[in-house]
Amino acid sequence: MEYKRYIHKKKPVMMYIHGECLSAFSFKTQVKEFKKDFEIVLPLLNDSFTSIQQTAEELIQYIDEQYDGHIQVLAGFSLGAQIVTEMLSQRNDLCEFAMVESALLLPSKLRNWSDLAAVHAPTLSHNKLFNSFMYYAKFSDDAAEHEYYENLKTIPQETLARMYDETYNYQLPDSIKDYTGKLAILVGQRESKKYKESADLLHDKVAGSEIFMLLNYSHGGLSLGHPEEYIRFVKSWVQQKDKQQRKAAKKKQEEEEGEYMPNWKHLLNRYKAKKAARASRTSL
Question: Which InterPro entries does its entry note (predicted)?
Answer without folding.
Answer: AB_hydrolase_fold (IPR029058)
